[in-house]
Specification:
Radius of gyration: 29 Å
Number of helices: 21
Distance between the termini: 68 Å
Shape: flat
Oligomer: single chain
Length: 557
C-alpha cells in the first residue's frame, strides 16, 4: 500500500454549512478542527508506507480517528461507523458528506504499521508540537510523574493452566498450518490428545481421578517434548519451527521443565526462572506478573508525565510502558528524560513519588539533564518495619575506607561490589564487628540481625549519590519542602481521567509495543480534551471543599 491521501486539507463547503447548522454550539470534533486544524499530516507516517503499490487510506485521517476512538470510548467498528455517519467527524477529517469512509479493519492494519516501524509516539508528539505552536506548552517549569498498573489482554493462568494452554495453542496453530504433518506426529504417541487439549483451559474442571498434580504436569511436559522433538527433526519442514506458537512452546518448556535420563519433571521453587523472565501467557509473551503492596496483576505499568503550571493546560508530555515485573519505578526515569529532551520539553523541576527517588536518580537527573527531582526518599527501615539509623548517622570516610557508627565503633571491612545483574550499580559493602554490635546499647535502633551472629552492615553508593540522598531526607522534613511537593498529588486526577475516559486499565492490544501505542493514543486523546477545555475557558479546579468544612472553618458563613 502506497501513501496517498484521501482527506483534503480544506473542509468542503457543504460539510461546513451542514455541520454549523447541525451543531450550533459545536462539538469536540468541530472545535478541535477549528482550533488546531489538521493535526496529523500524512508525511508524519511516511516511513510506514512504501512509495509504490495500491493507494492507501490517509494515515493522518486514520491517526485522528484512532485518537477520537479513545476520546469517545469506541471500538474499531464503531469508529469506522462514526466516520460514515457523523457530520462532526466528517468536518474534523475534511470529508464530503457522501464519503463512504473505510472498512474498520484498516484501523488495525494502521496500528500494526506504526508498531512495525517504531512510530508509536508520533501521534503524541504531533499534538505536543501543535500545543507548543499555540503557546500552550513550553520548556522548563514544573512537571510531575506517576505510574499505574495495566492489565494485559490475557487471562490470569495458574501454572497448570498455563502449560496446558500453551501446548493447546501450539497444537491449534499447527492444525491450521500443517494438518497432515501434525496428524502423523500425534499418531506416534499414544495419549488422549483430544480429551486433554481439545478445549480451552477455561472449560477444564480439575484433574482426572487417577492423577495428582505432579503426574499431570509430567504428562503434559512429555506431550510437549514429543511435539517439539517431532518439529525439530531433520525431515520436518523448516518453516514449522518459525511458527510463533511453537516457538513460545519451546520457550515455555525450557522454563517449566527438566528433561534428563530420569525422564521429564517440572521445575519447582527456586529452580523456576525469576518473575521478570517467566512467561505468564502464551498469547502475550511480553506480559509479566507484577505485584505492588497487596495488588497483583499480569501485564504492564503505565508511567505518565504531565505539566502542572497554573497558567497553561495540564498536558501529558511523555508516556512510558514498562513490564509489571520491574517493580522499581526509578528504572523508567532515564527513558522519560531522554524522550523529553528529544522533544525539547525538559522541565526544571519534576515532582515524583518515593518510588522514583533513589540516590542514583537524584544525581543523574541533576547532572545529565538539569532537572531537580522533587520527591520523598524512603526511610531506612528494618525487617519489622521500624526505622533504623540511616547512613547519615554514620561518619563515613571514603579516603580511609572506613565508617564509624553512632556508638563510636569502627567498621571492620570495606568491600566494593555491584548491585543486581539488571542494574549493575557500583556499591560498597561495609560491616561492623558482631561482638561489638551485640554488646552495644543502641543495637535495637541500629540493626535487626538475629541471634547476635551478625553486626550492622551498610550498603553505600558513591559519595555524590550518598550526599544527595542524605540531603533529601533532611529537607523533606521541612514545611517549605512539603509545600513545594504538594502539587504532585494532581497527577492522581490524570491517572483517574485516563483510566475512566479511555479505559486504559486494561490493554486493548497484545505485546508491549502495541500496548504502548494504545497508551500514546489514550494520552493524546486526553491532551486534545484538555486543550479544548482550556480554549473554552475551563480551568483545572482544586479539590472541592464541602459545605460542612467551609462552615466549620468560618462559622460566620
Amino acid at each position: 500500500m502506497s501513501l496517498e491521501s484521501w482527506a483534503g486539507g480544506e473542509i468542503p463547503e457543504l460539510t461546513w454549512r451542514v455541520a454549523r447548522r447541525a451543531f450550533p454550539k459545536r462539538s469536540l470534533a468541530i472545535r478541535l478542527r477549528d482550533s488546531l486544524g489538521q493535526v496529523f499530516d500524512d508525511a508524519l507516517f511516511a516511513a510506514a508506507f512504501p512509495v509504490d503499490g495500491r493507494p492507501a487510506a490517509s494515515p493522518g485521517a486514520l491517526a485522528m480517528v484512532s485518537v477520537m476512538q479513545y476520546a469517545e470510548g469506541l471500538s474499531d467498528r464503531q469508529a469506522a461507523e462514526a466516520v460514515r455517519a457523523r457530520i462532526d467527524w466528517k468536518y474534523l477529517l475534511g470529508l464530503d458528506l457522501d464519503d463512504s469512509g473505510f472498512d474498520h479493519s484498516l484501523l488495525a492494519r494502521f496500528r500494526a504499521r506504526l508498531v512495525a516501524h517504531g512510530l508509536e509516539e508520533r501521534v503524541l508528539e504531533a499534538v505536543l508540537e501543535a500545543a507548543c505552536g499555540q503557546g500552550l506548552l513550553r520548556r522548563g517549569g514544573r512537571q510531575r510523574t506517576d505510574s499505574t498498573r495495566v492489565v494485559a489482554d490475557v487471562r490470569l493462568l495458574n501454572r497448570m493452566e498455563f502449560v496446558a494452554e500453551t501446548l493447546r495453542a501450539a497444537l491449534e496453530a499447527l492444525a491450521a498450518a500443517a494438518p497432515d504433518w501434525l496428524e502423523h506426529a500425534l499418531a506416534e504417541r499414544e495419549t488422549d490428545w483430544l480429551g486433554r487439549y481439545g478445549e480451552r483451559v477455561d472449560s477444564w474442571h480439575g484433574l482426572p481421578d487417577d492423577q495428582d498434580r505432579e503426574s499431570w504436569l509430567r504428562q503434559v511436559g512429555e506431550d510437549g517434548f514429543h511435539l517439539l522433538t517431532a518439529a525439530w527433526r531433520p525431515d520436518a519442514p523448516d518453516w514449522l519451527r518459525r511458527i510463533p506458537a511453537l516457538q513460545t512452546l519451546r520457550w515455555a518448556w525450557v522454563q517449566q521443565y527438566h528433561r534428563g535420563q530420569e525422564g521429564v519433571r517440572a521445575r519447582e521453587g527456586e529452580d523456576l526462572p525469576p518473575g521478570h523472565q517467566r512467561l505468564a501467557s502464551p498469547y502475550d509473551t511480553e506480559a509479566r506478573y507484577g505485584i505492588k503492596k497487596t495488588t497483583g496483576w499480569t501485564g504492564y505499568c503505565l508511567h505518565l508525565t504531565e505539566t502542572c503550571e497554573d497558567d497553561a493546560p495540564r498536558l501529558i508530555t511523555d508516556v512510558a510502558t514498562t513490564s509489571a515485573a520491574e517493580g522499581d519505578d526509578s528504572q523508567a526515569l532515564p527513558g522519560i528524560h531522554t524522550r523529553l529532551a528529544g522533544r525539547e520539553l525538559m522541565p526544571a523541576e519534576q515532582l515524583v513519588d518515593s518510588g522514583y527517588v533513589t540516590a542514583g536518580t537524584l544525581v543523574a537527573a541533576r547532572q545529565e539533564h538539569g532537572i531537580e527531582l522533587v520527591g520523598p526518599a524512603r526511610p531506612v527501615a528494618g525487617g519489622d518495619g521500624r526505622e533504623r539509623f540511616g547512613h547519615e548517622r554514620f561518619r563515613i570516610d571514603d579516603a580511609r575506607r572506613e565508617a564509624v557508627c553512632p556508638a563510636g565503633q569502627t567498621s571492620i571491612s570495606w568491600a566494593t561490589t555491584r548491585s543486581s545483574r539488571r542494574t549493575r550499580v557500583p556499591l560498597v559493602q561495609v560491616r561492623f564487628d558482631a561482638a561489638a554490635c551485640r554488646a552495644c546499647p543502641l543495637r535495637s535502633q541500629c540493626t535487626t540481625a538475629g541471634n547476635g551472629k551478625w553486626g550492622r552492615a551498610l550498603t553505600l553508593r558513591e559519595p555524590a549519590q550518598r550526599a544527595a540522598l542524605q540531603q533529601r531526607r533532611r529537607e523533606q522534613e521541612t514545611d517549605a519542602w512539603r509545600e513545594r511537593y504538594r502539587p504532585r498529588a494532581g497527577i492522581e486526577a490524570t491517572i483517574c481521567q485516563i483510566v475512566h475516559r479511555t479505559h486504559a486499565r486494561r490493554s486493548r492490544y497484545r505485546t508491549a509495543a502495541a500496548t504502548h501505542l494504545g497508551h500514546c493514543l489514550a494520552a493524546t486523546a486526553i491532551n486534545l480534551i484538555r486543550i479544548d477545555a482550556w480554549q473554552q475557558g475551563h480551568r483545572p479546579e482544586r479539590t472541592r471543599t464541602t459545605h460542612l468544612c467551609r462552615l466549620l472553618a468560618d462559622p460566620s458563613k
